[in-house]
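Input.
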Amino acid sequence: MPAQVRAKDTRLAFTDIIVRYWLAHWQYVDKHPANVCICPLQGDESQKGRWLRTGPILELMDVLAGTMSSRVSLGPTATISFDRVDLVKPVFHGDLVRLEGEVIGLSSSSMAVQVSGFRHDVPTGKFQHTHDAVITMVAINRFGRPRKGLPVLFDEDR
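Output.
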């Protein structure tokens, strides 16, 4: 029988990304099954103040959802779809971006991960909501086929 994971342990995962031009990558994985912080440095310093294309942010959302789902499913996962993507505000080169993720749904072999993005507004010192996405991930076996038997999520408060 698969291990049980608390729902509170799947709300975690936040990512701080400094959008600048560097070639360094850094990753931190916490002890919790879905607590991940990935900090690749990207963007272009000479473009500071101009809009950053959405592609790099979507790629980071996919990496965050993949890391969370792999840790919750205790094995490899694959991205099936971005079910919904909302672009609320633009992100600029040189902005500090925070991504937060939570597993919001779980079935026998797939899970839905909600990822939200925030940019740091320097004048006010607050984070502004910029992106939302719901990403469907599926647990796969070594042959790339869907794998059944994901852990059961439960909430002690209910």
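The chain has one domain: 5-152.
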